[in-house]
Amino acid sequence: MDITTALFYIFSAILLGASFRVITARSTVHSALFLILAFFTASCIWMLLKAEFLAITLVLVYIGAVMVLFLFVVMMLDINSDNVREGFWKHLPLGALVGTLIALEMAAVLMGGFRLSEAPQTTEAALKLGNTKMLGISIYTQYLYPLQIAAVLLLVAIIAAIALTLRKRKDSRSQDPSEQVKVQKADRLRIIKVAPTVEAAPAAESAPETGAKA
Fold first, then answer.
1. pTM for the whole thing?
2. Which of 72, 126, 146, 210 is the most core-located residue (most Cβ within 10 A)?
3. How many CB atoms lie within 10 A of CB 35?
């Protein structure tokens, strides 16, 4: 067994343990921290499989952005998870059975990928271009239509989320640009002449008095 295979099994064991602790930890903050550990070990496994771009993306996007948001929301709301976790051990056997079936199905489909000794050899052209550039070429040439379909689905999901959460409040104030454009100068400013309430002293009488005081 070489060092790569040993590291693969070590990171896989840590990943499985962290994933199990995500659903069994009593504190939601601890669950989020174990999820960060699971993401980090998954990125390490991708680094062993020479998928550097996916590993860096997982660290930057999920650990650096998504999990920070999760921790912020969990610590701000301070959710009491005791009521949510009631009946966990009651449904554990059924959940373990479903999880085992899913794992066996994935192993049956991806069994060829689990054999590290039979990994395909990298060509010289791929080594010169690099992993990230080869991934970009594959996505935008061979998988262009699936990429566009996925982009449209994500756009529809974003629009649906905005439509579901959009609520009109009675106390909200908004401006109509079309009404603002129609406004004339006379509608914005109006000059009104107001008669003075106190009469000013005549200028001729005030001049001698100021000269005498001087």
1. 0.54
2. 126
3. 22
